[in-house]
Amino acid sequence: MAIFLFILYFALIIWVFRALDLHGKTNLSYVLLVALFTLKVSYGCLNLYFHYSEYIANDAHMYFSSAMSMLADFKNQPSFYLYDWFLNWGDIGAHINFLDKANSVYWSDVGRLLHQRFMILCTVLSFGHEYVNVLFYNTFFFIGCLALYKSFLFFKPNQKWLFLIIIFLIPSISFWCSGIHKDGFILSLIGLVSWSCISYFKDKTIKNGVVLVFLLLLMFAFRYFYFLIFLPFFLLYLVTRNRPKNGLYFLLLALAGSLGFFFLGSISNKLDVKRIVVNRQQEFLAAKGYSDLGLPALENSVSSFVKNFPIAIKHIFLEPIPQMGTKIKYDLASLDSILVLILLIVGLFYIKKKFCNNAYLWVLLYYSIFILIFIGYTIPNLGAIVRYESPFICLLLLTIFAMGNATVKKLPLE
What we know:
- The protein has 414 residues and is mainly α.
- It is 74% helix and 0% strand.
- The radius of gyration is 21 Å and the shape is globular.
């Protein structure tokens, strides 16, 4: 039954892609579009299999089990569960100040609730077959990745194949952003926000403006803290997008944000952002993951953050360090980290000043760097680092290459 449903839904989805002319709208052949979607779904299935074979407990199965449990009880209390699924989001009015640290737990829980609701919908459609759920998740993820590709293609039309390789063919990015996790939602929402922003400023229609606002709110709901880092850079883009030397404005904002991060806590305890990072690290340290890297515990002081900065950078860009002969998953992950590092270095060599005047590229560049540093500081487990960093490594690579003149001539599928 599961195989039949998988094939049926897969055929239906690719038919919808064709009916919507998704290939034409993205400047891809239909064959290539289907091949990329097939690859993404395959990575999603591999991700699910990997988690079942490697871990006794994992997030994907937790959400699936919760959905199955709720659906089993639905017939006993249908009105209660319908209300709970669609209308129960807690007391939003009491937490409307999303800048208040006391409300951070609530907004983090909203992201989990959205994921849970989507899992319930998928489980209903799949009749409880977990691998069929991978199809539904990756339909959304794939559309978001196409929007991201289309956004960068708008900026640099001659780098089509390079952008496709980064988004769809780098193993760690495809593997982690195709699984039943929130990482795929984040990368996809950034892609959708990016293309909606481009569309709005191209046409200036109310419809495009409403869609952009809705996607920003959805991004906020899924990953509250990530959105707070994105917001100031995005607002600066709205102000400086047509100004010359806009890169200077973003540099000044990044420096001001860094100084504020370190020293606002000395003015008022309510403004102490360092405490959020320290608390986040303590949560991960208490979880005691499988692949601990021995990350030193952060203290709520400038000196502690400065001391741990090289370690954070090392964990993001150099881990996992190749240690051939260990478990094959670590060997493969280390080879992927080498590939990413080589691409980053090569991309830096190709950067040209004349391509660095696009304000939105500065948004994504600083956004990805800040989030990666945050991940390096807070996450002590190798598996979690590789997973959480994948959307932002993708953004960083795309942005660096979009600021340069490197090109890839052609892929064999076109």
